[in-house]
Amino acid sequence: MDPTTFHTLGPKQQSKLGRSIITGSLILIKPKPELHKLYSTKGDSNLKLLVTSRPTREIRHGLQPLEVPGSSFIHLRDDNEEEVGKISREIDIFIEARVRDIGNKLELTEIERNLLQEKLVSAQNRTYLWVSLTLNLVESDINLSLTTNGRTIAKITSGLPETVDEAYERILATSRDHETARLLLHIVVGAARPLTLEEMNLALQLGPENNHKSYRSIFIKPTERIRNDIRDLCGLFVIVVESKIYLIHQTAKEFLILQDNGSPEHNTRQAFKWKNSLRPKDSHQLLFDISFRHLFFEEFESDPLLERQDASEYVDRHILLDYSAKYWTTHLRKSEIDLDQATTNAILKLCDTTSKSCLTWFRVFWASTNTDFPGNFTTLMLASYFGFTTAVKSLLESDNNIDANAKDDKYRRSALSWAAGNGFDAIVTQLVKRFRWKGVRVPFKRRSNVNSRDIYKRTPLVYAVWNRHILVVKILLKAGARVDLADDIGGTPLSYAICSGHEDVAEELLKKSSEAGSKDSIGVELLHSAAAKGDEDAVKLLLEIGKVHPDELNKFRDTPILRATENGREGVVRLLVQNGADIETRGENDRTALLYAATKGHSKIVRLLLQSGADIEARYEYGEASLKFAVELNRLLRTREP
Q: Is residue 8 scored above 50 in pLDDT?
């Protein structure tokens, strides 16, 4: 759990979380500088928090105990002599246990075990990681297993790695195929998520100088064979957990990668061949090439993912598709390669929305956004959405019949709207300027409508403001974007800019309008309107960026959760509850959210509120208990839900 997330939980949510945890259980907190917020939180809690971190300055300051009545803290730090001594003794116990295990496995004598243990214990600055790596190297040394004696052990232990980096170097030096090992490590280091054994098998076969065009030409290996091959390639440098491939430790990644504009570190003791040997850009280019070639497989055109077909079931039948579809564009951007015309044309082919293969990978990608798929997405929209500047430029210059103002069927958003929302200023510039066809200005051809409105009546400027894309905001304003066009809930680009608290964005819009209001009053009004209309995106934006409190009252003394409940907006109610809204608050007529949901027959919201701890015995001014409404709800639940 993120410490900031815990801090934002309301007292009731913290209390409920505490009651739900079995005595003795712990919550593991990810280390961040905001840890001081945990200590400054007052009040009783049943929670036990285990915080682990590296000893960075910000985190050390955050872990300094503050005066919090009724709280107790136990600090275990490794930056003072007493704690260092304790940790060293614990490591010695670990060494003793591991040497005993190795001794039993290799049938070492007591003298041989003592020799090995003494050598390890005498090492300076030893850590658990170093001991683990070193003993694994010792255990796998073929000389130890073939001719075990005191002299052999003495020889082996005389050359033990002194640092973790030396241990890493020695592990990779034993690889049976350095070229393939380097390819695999590029993939593991650069991947957006861990690949499975089956995915890695396919990815390696799609590496450089391979031209597979179908699953039929891929050699499908048994998973255990893939696991063994990986062990032969990289030894203990990578591990397999639940069929997914990981580096053995975070420091392994730090050992391998060479940061941009960096140069490999030089070691006076020995020359490293693997340290700082992988450039992130090269890793991303490799993964882009693999994913890109994969998405051209024949099966995605001959047996595509259809509109009403289950995407997850289709993905399960097509190895690596989940990864390729979701991340090929990410790797393209991070590789920072200059796109020539041939690559641009290939991207346009992959983004041709009239092809079945394009719709297949795009449906898989869109499933990860957890929103409804937008039909009638054009190639220009697709290229604009993902930020393919050269592809957009090529489309606009080569196709005189292109409709830059076309909209998708679901959200009614244009290519300009998608590009503005995702912050691609170069594409926005292309779309709002005068059209040229083969280098000649076309006066009768319309450029993109800068004030085009979607299904929620939002313009491209609204999405640029929401996501704080200041360059896009400036381009749109210069092109004539209006700051006063209201959407369905009454929000304008200007009002969103003001209540977001982003002064740089608001300043640009205020140059176009002298009308402004209070940030607080605008935010409250918009939140209530969005809650009543069920606009989850706007609610989330106002809560997270606008910093509007979820329990702000309107002029009728209602809160957003009451407005959302009364109108049956389950998604908004869930969002408000997650953000700490008080579910027991009462409106002008003294009813709670549960009473509203019960009387209106919103069974799903009732269930959500009850799961969130709503008081089923609550009464309002006329003395009626919500229990009678719950009885009615039992009937609703039986008849309306499976």
A: no
